[in-house]
C-alpha cells in the first residue's frame, strides 16, 4: 500500500499478528523508496532493550500505550514536519550537486577547446616560422656568403652579420621544435581528458 500512497510517516505497533514491528520496519528501511520515512513505534511495554532495538532498525520515536492522543498528535506532527524539511533539503542538495556536475562537465569541455585552440595556434606559428621566416633567413645567409661574408677577407661587419644570421637560424629552429613538441603534448593531454570523461557526471 505504501507504494501507491503518499506517506509522510509510519505509525507502527511493535506487536503485530503475523510479525513484530521491528522486522517490518527493517524491511521498510531496506526499500530505497521508503527509507526516508520516519517510523514511530507504539508499544505497551517500553523497556530499554525495546528502545535500543527500535532505534537500531530505524525508528525515530516511541509512544507507550495507553497514550494521550494529544501527545501522539504532537509527536506525529513534529516528525512529519522534520521529514518534509529533510526531503526539501535533500532535493536542494541534489539540485546543487547536479549544477556542480554540469559546471564541471562544461569546464572540462572549455578546457579541451582551449587546449585545442592553443595547439592549432602553435602549429600555425611553427609552420609559419619554418616556411617563411627560416627560409628568408637561409636566403639572407646565402646572400651574405655571396657578398664575401664567408671569405677570409670578410670585414668584421660581414662576419658579424653572418654570426647573427647563424644565431637567428639556430634559435628559430629550436623554437619551431619546441612549438611542435608542445603541440604534441597538448594533443596527448586533450585525448586523455576525452578518454577519462567528467568524473562527477558519471
List keywords for this structure.
single chain, 202 residues, mainly alpha, three-stranded parallel beta sheet, 4 helices, 6% strand, rod-shaped, disordered C terminus
How would you portray this structure in words?
- The protein has 202 residues and is mainly α.
- Helices cover 70% and strands 6% of the residues.
- It is built from 4 helices and 3 strands.
- It has helices spanning 21-30, 48-56, 69-149, 156-196; strands at residues 10-13, 39-43, 61-64.
- It has a 3-stranded parallel β-sheet with strand order 1-2-3, sandwiched between helices.
- Strand 1, helix 1 (21-30) and strand 2 (39-43) form a beta-alpha-beta unit.
- The longest helix is centred in the middle third of the chain and has 81 residues, at 69-149.
- It is rod-shaped and about 120 Å long.
- The two termini are 34 Å apart.
- The model is unreliable at 198-202 (pLDDT under 50).
Short précis:
With 202 residues, this protein is mainly α. The chain has helices at 21-30, 48-56, 69-149, 156-196, and strands at residues 10-13, 39-43, 61-64. The chain has a three-stranded parallel β-sheet with strand order 1-2-3, sandwiched between helices.
Q: Give the end-to-end Cα distance, rounded to a whole number of Å.
A: 34 Å
Number of E-type strands: 3
Strand content bin? 5-15%
Q: What is the CA-based Rg, rounded?
A: 39 Å
- Which sequence of SSEs, written as H and E, runs from N to C? EHEHEHH
Assembly state of the chains shown? single chain
- The secondary-structure class comes to mainly alpha
Mean pLDDT: 77
**Sheet with the most strands?**
3 strands, parallel
Helix content: 55-70%
Low-pLDDT sequence parts: 198-202
Strand order of the largest sheet: 1-2-3
What is the general shape?
A: rod-shaped
Number of contiguous helices: 4
Amino acid at each position: 500500500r505504501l507504494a501507491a500512497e503518499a506517506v509522510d510517516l509510519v505509525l507502527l505497533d511493535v506487536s503485530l499478528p503475523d510479525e513484530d514491528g521491528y522486522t517490518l520496519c527493517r524491511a521498510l528501511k531496506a526499500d530505497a523508496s521508503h527509507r526516508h520515512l520516519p517510523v514511530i513505534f507504539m508499544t505497551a511495554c517500553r523497556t530499554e532493550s525495546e528502545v535500543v532495538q527500535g532505534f537500531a532498525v530505524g525508528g525515530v520515536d516511541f509512544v507507550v500505550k495507553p497514550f494521550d492522543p494529544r501527545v501522539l498528535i504532537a509527536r506525529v506532527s513534529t516528525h512529519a514536519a522534520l521529514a518534509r524539511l529533510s526531503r526539501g533539503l535533500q532535493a536542494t542538495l541534489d539540485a546543487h550537486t547536479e549544477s556542480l556536475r554540469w559546471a564541471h562537465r562544461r569546464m572540462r569541455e572549455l578546457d579541451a577547446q582551449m587546449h585545442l585552440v592553443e595547439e592549432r595556434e602553435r602549429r600555425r606559428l611553427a609552420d609559419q616560422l619554418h616556411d617563411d621566416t627560416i627560409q628568408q633567413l637561409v636566403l639572407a645567409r646565402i646572400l651574405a656568403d655571396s657578398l664575401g661574408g664567408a671569405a677570409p677577407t670578410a670585414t668584421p661587419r660581414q662576419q658579424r652579420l653572418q654570426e647573427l644570421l647563424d644565431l637567428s637560424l639556430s634559435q628559430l629552429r629550436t623554437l619551431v621544435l619546441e612549438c611542435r613538441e608542445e603541440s604534441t603534448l597538448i594533443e596527448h593531454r586533450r585525448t586523455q581528458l576525452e578518454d577519462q570523461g567528467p568524473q562527477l557526471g558519471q
